[in-house]
Each structure stands twice: as structure tokens, then as C-alpha cells.
Design brief:
Elements lengths: L5 H18 L6 E3 L2 H7 L10 E4 L6 H14 L3 E3 L21 H18 L4 E2 L29 H11 L4 E8 L4 E8 L2 E5 L19 E6 L20 E3 L2 E6 L6
Parallel strand pairs: 1-2, 2-3, 3-4
Antiparallel strand pairs: 5-6, 6-7, 8-10, 9-10
Helix pairs in contact: 4-5
């Protein structure tokens, strides 16, 4: 965030690592930056002197998250997300503005961030700036405060905690294309169970700057019986209104993740 070039920052990193190793050899050394900045730094820093990578990788989508995963696998390091680095959707008190989104939308939005953090990036620690209530002259919250300016609780804090708890022991197993929908389903193991999660905009090419033209699948079909698979909402409650047909299970899929 200081806008330093890697060539300027590398000597600071090397000097800091040397000082830590000399004065506090039991302290773990982390290198913070975006994946591409980290890769540039490692041309001038010995990766064996670094214990873990990190950076603000909240609100990374499919390809960005895959890049975090690849750099960790390449160097056999784990990644720590220090925070979010992204503003929330418009606060609830501004419900008349065109940028307003419902509390359910915000909760689903947070759930997708946690999925990218834990099932695609496969982070060791998923950090979150939880309680910053800052004005910035705009009356907008900064970095996901837990309540609105009028005191209204905001659901993404609870969603972050619930999703993080549910997926704490999940082991990512990659992703598969979901039939002919153009969507991805992210796979994971949780104990002896195999799980998958998707939503109506879970695409490789998803761009958060633009809303997808199709944000709902009215009759998504799974070729399974209700006895062989559980279909759950983002908090792992049974999804309501599932229809069992001769061809399998049918249900509504929108931007709320379904497991």
C-alpha cells in the first residue's frame, strides 16, 4: 500500500528478515503482498527465509483465488489473509438509494467470500476487519462493520463466523463444471463426507464489476434422490421447497450458496 516497486521493497524485506533471525529466531516471518507482487519480490528474496505468505485476499474471485493457491503450492507455503480491503455494499440505512442491497444479499455475498478464501485459496487463516465503523465523510461503513450507523445489526459478521466454523476442517478437492449450466461446483471433504457448493453466478469468468444477466436458475436439477444427498443452505440448514421427481431433485438456485 506504500506504492513501492519490488526493487525498492526487497532490501527492506531482506534487512527485516536478517534482524528477526538474529534477535528473535523463534518468530515466524511472513511476506505480505498480492500474489503477483509476492512473485516479483521472491526474485530478490530467498523464499527459504520466509515461513508463510499473506495479504488482503478477501473479495478475490475464481482466477485470483486459484493464483493464491498455485503460488502456495509452488513454494510449499501457507497463505494468511490479513483483512478484507474492500468496502461493503451500501448500508441498510440508505435503503432508498439505487445501490442498496438487501440483508440477505449481503449475507450471501459474505458467504461467497468465505468459500473463495477457504475452499479455493485454501487459506491457513482467513482474517477479517470486523468492527470498523468509520465515516470517511460518506456515512458508509468501512471493512464490514457489524452494525449499521442506526444500530441495525448487519448479517455478514455472523455469516463470516458461521461459514468459517462450518468449513474450518474442510479439505478442498478442486471444482467441477455443473452440467450445461456454465457454473462451477467447488468440492471439499469434511470428515467422511464429500461436499460441493455452488450458486447462480459461480463462474470462472465472473467479474464483480458487472451483474450477471442470469442470477437465478428456477429449476436446477440434480440427478440424485433425496435419500442419497443432502441439499443445504449457506448455514447448512435443509434447503426448503426441494422437489423429488423421477429425474432427480429440483430446486431454486440464486446467489445464495447451496451445499
Amino acid at each position: 500500500e506504500l506504492s513501492w516497486a519490488p526493487e525498492q521493497f526487497a532490501p527492506v524485506v531482506n534487512t527485516t528478515i536478517a534482524a528477526i533471525n538474529e534477535k528473535a529466531p523463534n518468530v515466524k516471518v511472513g511476506l505480505s503482498g498480492t500474489p503477483e507482487f509476492t512473485e516479483e519480490i521472491l526474485k530478490m528474496v530467498d523464499v527459504n527465509e520466509v515461513d508463510f505468505f499473506g495479504g488482503s485476499t478477501f473479495d478475490f474471485h475464481h482466477w485470483e483465488s486459484k493464483r493464491v493457491k498455485r503460488i502456495c503450492e509452488r513454494y510449499n507455503k501457507r497463505w494468511v489473509c490479513y483483512g478484507v480491503g474492500q468496502r461493503p455494499p451500501t448500508n441498510s440505512m440508505y435503503h432508498t438509494l439505487y445501490t442498496y442491497e438487501s440483508p440477505r444479499y449481503k449475507a450471501a455475498w459474505m458467504a461467497k467470500q468465505v468459500i473463495y478464501l477457504l475452499l479455493v485459496q485454501d487459506l491457513r487463516i482467513a482474517g477479517h476487519y470486523a468492527g470498523v465503523l468509520r465515516n470517511d465523510g460518506r456515512h458508509y461503513g468501512l471493512n464490514k462493520p457489524l452494525c449499521d450507523y442506526d444500530g441495525t445489526p448487519i448479517p455478514w459478521g455472523a455469516t463470516f463466523a458461521v461459514m468459517g466454523t462450518l468449513l474450518a476442517d474442510a479439505i478442498p478437492e478442486g471444482e467441477v463444471k455443473l452440467g450445461n449450466t456454465g457454473l462451477l461446483a467447488y468440492l471439499f471433504r469434511n470428515g467422511d463426507q464429500l461436499g460441493a457448493v455452488t450458486w447462480s453466478t459461480a463462474k470462472e469468468e465472473y467479474d464483480h464489476h458487472w451483474k450477471e444477466s442470469r442470477r437465478q436458475f428456477e429449476n436446477l436439477r440434480l440427478g440424485s434422490s433425496i435419500e442419497s444427498v443432502e441439499v443445504l443452505d449457506m448455514y447448512w440448514n435443509r434447503l426448503p421447497d426441494i422437489q423429488q421427481t423421477a429425474a432427480g431433485l429440483r430446486f431454486l438456485l440464486d446467489e445464495e450458496p447451496v451445499f
